[in-house]
Amino acid sequence: MKKIVLASALAFLASCASQNTTTPSSFDWKGANVYFAVTDRFNNGNPDNDVNFNRTEKAAVLRGFEGGDIRGVIQKIDEGYFNKLGINAIWLTPIVEQIHGATDEGTGLTYAFHGYWTKDWTALDPNFGTEEDLKELVEKAHQNGIRIVLDAVINHTGPVTYADPAYPNKWVRTEPQCTYNSYEMTTACTLVKNLPDVITESDENVGLPPMLEQKWRKEGRYEKEMSELNVFFVKTGFPRAPKYYIMKWLADYIVKYGIDGYRIDTLKHTNEDVWKDFKKVCDLAFAEYKLNNPKKILDNSPFFTIGELYGYGISQKRLYDFGDKKVNYYQNGLNSLINFDFKGDANKSYEEIFSNYDQILHADLSGNTVMNYISSHDDGDPFDKERKRNYEAGTKLLLAPGISQVYYGDETARKLIVEGAIGDANLRSNMNWDEVKNNPETQKVLTHWQKLGQFRRNHAAVGAGKHQMVSNSPYWFTRTYKDDKVLVGLDLNPGVKEVSVTGIFENGTRLRDAYSGKTAKVSNGKVSIDSEFGIVLYEKLLIKFCF
Q1: According to the model, what pLDDT value does residue 6 have?
Q2: Which fold has domain 2-20+466-543?
Q3: What DSSP character marks residue 323?
Q4: CA–CA separation, 367 vs 362, rounded Å?
Q5: pTM
Q6: Confidence of residue 325 (pLDDT cuts 50, 70, 90)
Q7: Tell me, what's the pLDDT at 22?
């Protein structure tokens, strides 16, 4: 009997010890894997909110509301979609109340489905969801280790329509239209015709826009909103200028819901000091949220700000050139900038991309970072527009130094060319969930992105670490960040793949290939693995003992 018990115990321990595990590294924004969704186009979780404010006019192709909402994002969190994709931050297009009417900017009748035409910063648009939806979204995201980034629009309001009057002229200008040939004609002008530009350079005290006052009184919240504004302006000492009103309203989403970051729209169309002040307001709001919600804090990461400085690329390093003035936005409240270079750089070799980015990020941009993308909601010239290089796109994006931005449907080869659509409507097609469910090729592409995404999420070294090429042919490299180290091989031949790891991993070290799921052991300074794939993602294994 004793022999049986002993044998059973040894068998259990042996079984348990053979359960090799990896320990995900701690989160770092510089290595984040961000999922960017146009809220209206991702997933319709609540068909009952599809029509509001009498938005019933027939819009041009893909220029009306399509039904996507916050509830749809929650559904995909619940289903584990983002976890399987290795996502640790979700960025949503603006969800505040949009203009009620439609307008035609030369591309057909268009509603504010995209979220960038604000009517009221203090309210959610019912097409996107409710306050309870947003609260649940943030809480469920955090429970899954996922941060929530919202879109901050301070530069402009929505267009004037039959249902949407302009803000007062002390709040906005309606001319001149930007020519982009100087600093002033980029910042003190309207982006496009009929898009009122908030006078963000002004520090003049102005009253609340009458349209908002009337709206709030009708909704029964005028006194509450005014009281909160009074507290904000006394607390901060800021003048009652338009930009500070908007900053307060955007900061409320931090204090109330605990969002983790803001992506800043049309960054270069305001004076840079706007964003320095905005970061201060956001940091104070984030500190207040943490103080009031100690049990809901995800980690000690600071509030994150990333700017859309249209046309900026990592090759420009810290200075953006307006022609007559150069501006360093990194020292004006920005942790990161979107990298418009990557879509072109993605045509270069792996090592050319990786080594160049590594050099800039760890020298010129040390302490900051960039967000790379292959496609986006307003870039008409994405990498691989016809979706013919889906595997290569995923490999380069998800293994590149810096932050990766997965634009919804990159991982499923969602179409970027739609019959009948004009301009950027092509970029905003509905998420191809039917293909995810029924198309084997789509599923294969998604699996590739999932494996790479999980590897990136589990290892901050991938995006934030120091890059070092190990071998050129076959191509191997390492990334190291604090105690986290990975070894990656690309464009390898199927079958046995051996590489020298002297100085990287000690003899006896057990490694796991996160792509094939197979394990290997370092012996005589080398490690080899037999897999059918041309990619290897080595991570260090820890042996889990259960006694």
Answers
A1: 47
A2: Immunoglobulin-like (2.60.40)
A3: S
A4: 8
A5: 0.95
A6: very high
A7: 65
Q: How are the residues of the chain apportioned to helix, strand and coil, as percentages rounded to the nearest 5?
A: 35, 20, 45
How is residue 48 written in tokens? Answer: 């009952």
Tokens representing residue 375 in the block: 């496609």
319-to-191, 312, 313 alpha-carbon distances in Å = 22, 9, 10
- 49: which DSSP letter? G
CATH class of the domain defined by 26-458: alpha beta
Phi, psi of 198 (to 5 degrees): -65, 135
Q: Specify the domain boundaries for CATH 3.20.20.80 within the chain.
A: 26-458
Structure tokens at 316: 């420009």
Which residues are bridge partners to 527 per DSSP? 499
- Residue 40 contacts residue 128 (beta carbons within 8 Å): yes
Beta bridge partners of 511: 520, 540
Question: Which tokens hold the place of 360?
Answer: 């800039």
The identity of residue 390, as a single letter, is: N
Beta bridge partners of 475: 490
What sign does the CA torsion over 378, 381, 383, 389 have? positive
Q: How many CB atoms lie within 10 A of CB 424?
A: 16
Sign, CA torsion 513/516/521/523: negative
CB-CB contact of 58 with 109 (8 Å): yes
pLDDT reading at 3 higher than 60: no
Are 534 and 544 within 8 A, CB to CB? no
Does residue 35 surpass a pLDDT of 50? Answer: yes
